[in-house]
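2-oxoglutarate-dependent dioxygenase: structure tokens wanted.
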Amino acid sequence: MRVVNAAWQEWLSINVARGCTPGSLIDAMVQAGFADDDARVAVHHAFDRRPADPATTATVADPVTQPYRYDPMPVARGNLICADERDVRVLLRCERPQLVVFADLLSAGECTELIERSRHRLKRSTTVDPLTGNEDVIRNRTSEGVWYRRGEDELIARVERRIASLTNWPLENGEGLQVLHYDVSGEYSPHFDYFPPDQPGGAVHTAQGGQRVATLIIYLNDVADGGETVFPAAGLSVAARAGGAVYFRYMNGQRQLDPLTLHGGARVLAGDKWIMTRWMRERAYG
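Answer:
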């Protein structure tokens, strides 16, 4: 079995500094004879050792010492926004945190098709471990999901263009769309979508595309009872209505991260819940 000696550590440091992605380094080490788990640990440690650059490191705002500065959000003003080929209604805007609730982002037919094509591909959802960067199954997230490659087919490409137009954020700066299913009693405890900058695992995920800056959650069905998207710090909850969506932004132009965007998925009390999520990055992703 191969060992990560000084030569390999130097190789990792050089390639991390060059901007190589964690996945490419892990693949190279596996091809060179390392066990997959050993390669992942070595790469994660290499990113942990990378010197922090104050100019490119995001910081979580502190309400006392460093309050979050709310600069203009990318979403256009007005109560009706033309998103590519579709008119989308604005139902609510919130300034702190920056949040917009939409209606009619997807048609009933698009919602149904996305649900039906996702049923047979569902797998138990994971979350990112902030210490290691690994994706783990946890008790606090009781959903199943499926990822779609960017531009995977005509429907996915059309929805992605619409989202990019609505949020005024480059299509290539978005992660692939993820469809999630929560059965009755399913929930997701309050959490942040941005990667914690003070945790070593975050560096692995921000190495490609940078930090997450905003989230769009699209509701694919009406939930009979429960299943709201809740924002505890804002005292706000958004009911799941088919075709509607909620957008929230958590990184400003100064690269501060907004802790008021703490959010979760309330427990589904009756029926089930289908949503589709788009996470937006600082730079091109994938």
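Residues 6-51 form one domain. The radius of gyration is 20 Å.

Cheers.
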